[in-house]
Design goal:
TIM Barrel; 14 helices; alpha/beta; 2 domains; about 375 residues
Length: about 375
Amino acid sequence: MGTVTPPWAFGYRDPEKRPLFVCWEMTKACNLSCRHCRARAIKRALPGELSVEQGKKLIEQILEFGEPYPAILFTGGDPLMRPDLMEQIAHARDLGIYTAVASSVTNLLTKETMEQLRDLDVGVMSISIDGADPETHDALRGVPGTWQRSVEVLREANEIGLRIQINSTVMKSNLKQLADLFHMALVNRVAAWEVFFLVRTGRGAALENPTPEEVEDVMKFLVFASGYGVTVRTSEGPQFRRVLRESMNGQLTGGTLYEFLVGRLRKLAGQPTREAPKRLNSTGDGKGVMFVSYNGEISPSGFLQANLGKYPEESIVDVYRTNSTFVELRDPLKLRGKCSRCEYRGYCGGSRSRAFVETGSFMESDPLCIYEPVLARHL
């Protein structure tokens, strides 16, 4: 069977009917001890993991969303800790479902393992790199040598023809390294750089968020960086779409952090050679994304782990389409506070995960957004 076409290649116009991604947290087990881990991953699997057959049935339920089928992201913990990972990937591929794998960089991620993923037509494998030097990255990961091995994984993936993505989380400790992180993505010819904006959940609850002003500068830097030809995406940072639209209406300017990062990237890579993308999918927690935990609990995303259903007792299709919280999360008219008055509410909508963690409400304003809506300025 040939490579499966990702669902976003067909255009994404029906978030009410189907997500773009079904994320399956195969296990909580992982050999790293990351300080910002959403999953609070541990060394051994917890009781209650979905069985091999339950996993296959979960994948088969994705077909019930209809074509184009949502993609499946195998995540964790570390999905490589599940001995049936390759079997589950092969099952999804055989059904015509696009697959992605979020791997931890441990001794399990060998070149031979990556060759297996390539041979199974995995669409993309992502690894996390959160620092431009070993000191920053390894301090977060809790295992010395992880940064160096991550660099080797990037090289090996290129050698064998496995598409790879770098994930980076924006934190106070690495703000000034973001240009260097992007340059690492650029020179290693990655498929995408996905930038995660910290949601203080899991072990990440103890970390300090950047200020809203710093986040705004980072968003503007990401628009600038997207002109170098690497796909730039955000997770829990939907304001990126608003900043991208604003950049189309005039010159992109920012504060001191923006100027520093832009200057650093110009020094490393010269001037950008392309225009920033004109459009991004307007996805968010429960809107284009759903999450199935290691024991089958169904949530709007990995960062918004509100138990809204339980697989296999309930259908993931029914929960996504009919659960009242999923439905509300897709309705911009249900937003509260500043987000409810924002002219970008349908395109951005703010991070529902961050709103919930910081305010206790799914639909409250995103506290990391500095933007003042036009309507609010005249009240």
